[in-house]
Structure to design on (451 residues):
């Protein structure tokens, strides 16, 4: 404007208008991260309000209709939550907030770096410490399921092997399809290698030689992981059973827990404290009256379940850890409650405790008629399995307890034979008594006995 009014002011220099080149590149980066952080925060808040509305609808109880219809409606809601991955959507909320916080820290660090490097280093250090701590928490939550510091990222990382399993399943199905394609007529297979069909035939050979063994190795690794996972599950169930027996005083809860323990097919990973807890419950249900033992009124079912669990856990420990000091202490505790010269006729549940009495007090003569014993099918199998364990452990010291041997001889001589598994255990007891080389793994594994 000055040049237009008086061009003599500038002399011979003609001024040029400055050209707009846009915002600095650093400011654009800062603005991108800041707006992304703001958008993530607002979207997470929006989704949180929707989630609260969805949960209120789920918790809403319809007062119309019968109780069955209301329960069916609630079950449909629960099924919809599982089918539509509602928990995954809700767990994305903290993920978005964490990403928004990280973007805010990065934007602030980048902006302060252009202003003053010292202040920027402080902010970068705090942000880096937070990121390192969060990475440590994610790694710990991924490696250890029992770690209390669980995050959504840990669950996502643990889910990656499932994706690879699906890919492996697709490859396995593809292999089956291609294997069926290979079985083409002979006059079609004998073709030159330079033709397209010959190339396909060579590719199929490469698949069978290279890829199939790799798939077999993956299958073996998967089977080993499944076994370890089942063992961890068994250990966890044993700890849960022990916790319930020690913390709950309700008779019904204890009875249900003991029945669940009695129906456990294998006692892999069980803790030795279960034996003492089952024995304590049995003692609480029994009153010693001179030389007789009387079950308290109303405690019959609990006493029977605890006696069965004590019998099963004791026989399992006697074969897995025969030299354990805990087993010796259990024998001493049993001897104080059930002395050697106790009348076998006063023993509650003589078919279970009588066998234990004969095994613990070695040499004690207990007479039991197995013909009077009428167990259920599952209980029959569990008792036969426990007797085979007890026979193996006691035979290492002197001989098979006579009650165990009489059990085996009685049930294989019946006109109507018991279940196949019971017959197998009876034959196993007789084989142990005859001195056959019966490995411990055969006695422990019910699947081996079936085979």
């Amino acid at each position: 404007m000055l040049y237009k009014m008086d061009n003599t002011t500038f002399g011979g220099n003609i001024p040029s208008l400055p050209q707009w080149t846009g915002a600095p590149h650093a400011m654009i980066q800062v603005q991108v991260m800041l707006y992304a952080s703001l958008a993530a925060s607002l979207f997470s808040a929006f989704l949180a309000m929707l989630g609260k509305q969805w949960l209120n609808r789920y918790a809403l109880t319809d007062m119309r209709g019968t109780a069955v219809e209301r329960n069916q409606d609630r079950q449909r809601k629960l099924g919809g939550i599982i089918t539509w991955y509602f928990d995954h959507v809700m767990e994305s909320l903290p993920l978005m907030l964490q990403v928004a916080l990280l973007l805010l820290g990065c934007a602030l660090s980048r902006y302060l770096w252009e202003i003053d490097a010292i202040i920027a280093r402080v902010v970068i250090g705090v942000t880096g410490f937070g990121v390192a701590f969060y990475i440590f928490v994610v790694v710990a939550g991924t490696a250890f399921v029992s770690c209390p510091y669980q995050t959504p990222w840990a669950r996502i990382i643990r889910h990656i092997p499932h994706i690879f399993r699906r890919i492996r399943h697709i490859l396995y199905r593809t292999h089956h399809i291609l294997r069926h394609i290979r079985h083409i007529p002979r006059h079609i297979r004998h073709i030159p290698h330079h033709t397209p069909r010959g190339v396909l035939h060579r590719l199929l050979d490469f698949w069978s030689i290279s890829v199939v063994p790799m798939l077999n190795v993956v299958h073996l690794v998967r089977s080993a992981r499944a076994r370890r996972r089942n063992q961890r599950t068994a250990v966890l169930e044993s700890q849960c059973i022990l916790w319930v027996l020690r913390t709950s005083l309700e008779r019904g809860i204890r009875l249900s827990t003991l029945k669940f323990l009695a129906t456990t097919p294998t006692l892999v990973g069980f803790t030795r404290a279960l034996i003492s807890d089952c024995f304590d419950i049995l003692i609480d249900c029994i009153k010693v009256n001179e030389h007789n033992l009387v079950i308290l009124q109303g405690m019959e079912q609990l006493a029977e379940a605890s006696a069965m669990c004590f019998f099963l856990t004791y026989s399992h420990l006697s074969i897995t850890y025969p030299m354990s000091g805990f087993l010796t202490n259990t024998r001493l505790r049993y001897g104080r409650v059930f002395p050697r010269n106790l009348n076998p006729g006063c023993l509650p549940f003589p078919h279970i405790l009588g066998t234990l009495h004969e095994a613990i007090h070695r040499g004690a003569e207990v007479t039991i008629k197995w013909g009077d014993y009428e167990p259920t099918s599952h209980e029959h199998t569990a008792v036969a399995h426990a007797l085979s364990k007890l026979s193996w452990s006691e035979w290492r010291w002197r001989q098979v307890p006579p009650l165990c041997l009489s059990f085996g001889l009685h049930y294989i001589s019946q006109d109507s034979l018991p279940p196949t598994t019971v017959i197998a255990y009876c034959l196993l007891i007789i084989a142990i008594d005859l001195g056959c080389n019966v490995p411990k793994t055969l006695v422990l594994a019910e699947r081996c006995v079936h085979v």
